[in-house]
Amino acid sequence: MSLRFSLVITAFFAHVSFAYSENVPGFLEGKLYSTDVAQCGDIVDTDGNALQLSGEGIFTEEFSCQFVGFKTDADKDTGRIFGVVATASCSDDSGISRPDLISMSPYEEGGQVIVQSQNEYLLGETEIIVAQQLEKPFPEKNSYAWVSNTYNLCK
Description:
Blueprint: H1 3-14, E1 33-34, E2 52-53, E3 57-60, E4 63-74, E5 81-92, E6 97-107, E7 112-117, H2 118-133, E8 149-153
Antiparallel strand pairs: 1-2, 1-8, 2-3, 3-4, 4-5, 5-6, 6-7, 7-8
């Protein structure tokens, strides 16, 4: 696939209009996180390994998950957020869009958000079951984990 075509597709998906959720959690509102703080801002990672997280979704070159809704698990008395589940519509340069549930645990003191994709979690669990059935060693790490990562606050 040519770089020019990839950039056109990426630009298209970056501007696809979804029903942007109005209840963006405070730890995401107006903030940007990245799996590689050297890649904060414009996505310049041509390998597509650095992802960025904002109130709009998760993005990298040729891939995006647009958030369309949030559900927050918070302490009723203190308002402390334990976790957030975002409904997302994810797509890549193939043009195929698929739903996902994204779990986020903010650690504001350290400027981090731990993210887990339900789709990637299920693929990882399937990988373990297949290893058991084939009597092979368990994988050390979920090889499907990509969106599931630690995101650091960009300064």
